[in-house]
Amino acid sequence: MEVFTHWRTWNAARADLEASGDGARVDLDAVERAADAARRWHGDQLRPTGVPYVEHLMEALEVLVRGAGVTEAAVLSAALLHDVVEDTPATLADVEAGFGPEVTELVDWVTKPPVAGGGRQAKRAAKSAYLRRLREAPPEAIVVKLADRVSNVQRLDQMPLDFQRRYYAETCTYIIPLAEPHPWFAGWYARWREAFAHLR
Fold this sequence. Notes:
With 200 residues, the chain is mainly alpha-helical.
């Protein structure tokens, strides 16, 4: 199972893309604008593992480019911005003002709606509804979500065991079916499911 952790910053990603020649297939300036905005909006935010949040966004970008071979600037920009509405003060209007309607639509599809009160059960029910709704999303939004989840689960063993089991089940139930029409993602998730089969 391939792990995508080489691009920790946009500068590292851009240098790698330019050195490999893949930069010619990607609108690097457009993607850089999204990387800069994501870094600005997320600021000093950290992941649950304690690493800078931006590393998660760069992992999702690396998954799309290096793994799935995606080159569309809108999809790559949406991957970098996919959590800004959910986890920062940024709004969809902010995203649209900076990146236009196509990127905004993709970000909107992968943004979990807020849950007002209700406790843990209400949050889990809302998340399940959100994940079920993704089946109706455009393919570009689905690949953003698939890349986001690859980043989240590729090192699932760094999280507490009860979280690992719950996230494994959630990924198998809701995310892996979304990967079926996308051969690279389908193969990656099949290998991941076997690597973490002890969590069944």
